[in-house]
């Protein structure tokens, strides 16, 4: 028994073909949209690859770009097929290609679904990449005269200003690294010598942060140095002060940004996937309706369209049988070859 | 009398005219739409910068008039596209016959007038920006410390964000910050001798320091930002504030904002000039098409030659007819509703 049979008369077939033609061209536009979304994500990831140690995975944007291109190609081809479907002469040349083409379409839809799922799932790998990248970035903040790292200070400063964040998890990350280069320290000063002697590695650690951590919404001018020393500033309590610096860590801020970007792209890709599935189903109905036209000379006659010729379980059994037959025919050939050789040898 | 600027239009040139007019009309609609979007963008930017422009600044009139002019150009373009498309089809043209005349008058007077006004404003208004920015920035700087005074509590945040976004410091340079008190008295320790000395050192009792807020810092500098003691040559190791350096932003916000807004105005003016040119061409083409088709009494496909013209009689005769029409309508019933208005032909740009 066929799966989801639908009767088609001439009018219905024509309407189906026209509707599918329109949907295919809309789907080409959707493919262009997916392509540009993938390109945009790739550019955004490249812009900030310095704080991700240049090791971020470009799998999602690359696959979105690939899916966009494939969608454009397949859907324009399907549009051409639907346009020719109503002319029996033109349709005859497409006939042998239609079944493999539908199989390819099904595979493409499965791939698109997988890419959509990846959009939602990439957050985890991005988090670890960002954590490592930001840690290194902050370590190289002071190396403005080391070739290859001289732009790290500018990158981190502009990142903290743009994303309104400070440090990796918070502003205290800056207390643990030396972010002031030795070139700008006055080594004759007692204070500098004390600080350098106070830790094992001989680093100049301060309880201060760079200027890019400052929050413009604070009612008082920004306090950047001696942050944990209440008596250094008038009317200041570092436990209750919230508006002075940005409280978010840059890892969380960047992660939120990229997650929301990828979530919205995943939502758009999901809608496009639903559209593509509808088109594939419509194309299958058109294919079977035109196949089952009983009298080729009479275009007005009725025909039936279906999704699968038999029910799902029977189709699956038939598929397995055909696979076994393929295997068996190889086996028989091999046995025949052996039997042929054995009498010769024997 | 002879018609003004007549043009013989047999069938083929008429069709060519209609097709060319259709293309030009869509270009005009595109130009009008772009002018609309751009002036909307300028309005949004002006609204964001409203704290730094004196309230009396007339510059905001430019994007508002340009918005209306863009709308007019968009409308003219759409009308032109519809009319030229209809003129090729005998069935669609009759409803257009009645409305085309008044629409042409509206397009010339309304649309053309608005565009000329907008162009004039684009040339004249940027000159007023200088004094408006001078006043606005001066007020903002003076109120930087007043974060608890109602009405001025956002000055600090807005000025910091301006300096961060536009990469500038102070009005004309970073030394402007040395002349005002930008640290609020609430955060000054009255028992600290240094604070008392500074306050007593000037007539107005202001706490003046040779330091700048954090938003003046330049991230391109190789060393961590130096914000305080900027007039002492030996206060910081390896740093001489008298030498050019990357420590702070070098430009003043006045110059940066002036350039920014003037660029906006010049791009908008250029766009409006192109739209104006397209509008003249479309209106002329529509007038010729209309008069040519009137000569055929509405039978579109007739093969005969007709003449298209701008005005049926000379300019003087036309003005006399208009005056007489207006006079006749006025005299018998002065208490009636306003008589039909004679089209104001003086506003026509091509006459």
TrEMBL record, chain A:
Mode of membrane association: Multi-pass membrane protein
GO CC annotation: photoreceptor inner segment; plasma membrane
Places the protein is found: Membrane; Photoreceptor inner segment
TM region(s), chain numbering: 20-41, 101-122
Main location: membrane
InterPro entries for this protein: Peripherin/rom-1, Peripherin/rom-1_CS, Peripherin_LEL, Tetraspanin/Peripherin, Tetraspanin_EC2_sf
Listed CDD domains: peripherin_like_LEL (cd03162)
GO biological process: cell adhesion; visual perception
UniProt KW ATP-binding keyword: no
Keyword Transmembrane helix (UniProt): yes
Keywords in alphabetical order: Cell adhesion, Disulfide bond, Glycoprotein, Membrane, Sensory transduction, Transmembrane, Transmembrane helix, Vision
Pfam (any one): Tetraspanin
Domain of life: Eukaryota
Similarity annotation: Belongs to the PRPH2/ROM1 family.
Subunit (UniProt): Homodimer; disulfide-linked. Forms a homotetramer. Forms a heterotetramer with ROM1. Homotetramer and heterotetramer core complexes go on to form higher order complexes by formation of intermolecular disulfide bonds. Interacts with MREG. Interacts with STX3. Interacts with SNAP25.
Function recorded in the entry: Essential for retina photoreceptor outer segment disk morphogenesis, may also play a role with ROM1 in the maintenance of outer segment disk structure. Required for the maintenance of retinal outer nuclear layer thickness. Required for the correct development and organization of the photoreceptor inner segment.
The protein, known as: Peripherin-2
Organism: Enhydra lutris kenyoni (northern sea otter)
TrEMBL record, chain B:
SUPFAM superfamilies: Tetraspanin
Family matches, as Pfam families: Tetraspanin (PF00335)
Transmembrane segments: 21-41, 61-83, 103-125, 264-286
Start-end of Acidic residues biased regions: 337-351
Subcellular location: Membrane; Photoreceptor inner segment
Predominant subcellular localization, coarse grouping: membrane
Keyword terms of this UniProt record: Membrane, Sensory transduction, Transmembrane, Transmembrane helix, Vision
Gene Ontology cellular component annotations, sorted alphabetically: membrane; photoreceptor inner segment
GO BP term, example: visual perception
Membership in a protein family: Belongs to the PRPH2/ROM1 family.
Protein name: Peripherin-2
Species of provenance: Enhydra lutris kenyoni (northern sea otter)
Lineage, highest ranks first: Eukaryota, Metazoa, Chordata, Craniata, Vertebrata
Gene: LOC111149835
